[in-house]
Amino acid sequence: MKARHHRGRRQVGLTLVAMLVLLTFLAAMISTVLRANVARLRYVRARQHNASALYLAESGVQEAIHSIVSDPERRGASGATSIERVVGEGDYRASWVQPEAGVYDIASVGVARDGAFTSSRISVHVRIHVRPGNGDLPGVVRVLSWRLGAKPAMTPGGKPPS
Hints:
Elements: H1 2-70, E1 81-87, E2 90-100, E3 103-114, E4 117-131, E5 140-150
Antiparallel strand pairs: 1-2, 2-3, 3-4, 4-5
């Protein structure tokens, strides 16, 4: 009778050990899946913030072109001219100079923010040639060059990284 009682305890003990091994294995798998999902989420957020920063920088370029074409006083003939705007969870700054007649160099920086942190900063540099319109005909803007520069940042208060 004692042998039978020990055999029952042994089976319960082996079952308990097997369950603990199985639970440990499942916990490790769940942990791995969660880490992969968190990494994927961070990647997707970074891509979204980069896209937002690019769109903001492009908005700055578009507004600068509009100002150059529509307002002769803001064409930058007497020095650099600039625009700053806050849009939603980000902002852009665009400035331009006129190095020669009809040619403008525009630099625009788009900054996407995630709360108090700057999550992405992208700059766009564009050189355009503007031919003013005559009477009823609108002016013509031709893009001579377009360069993209990216500067990722994760600093409090939106300050650029050092």
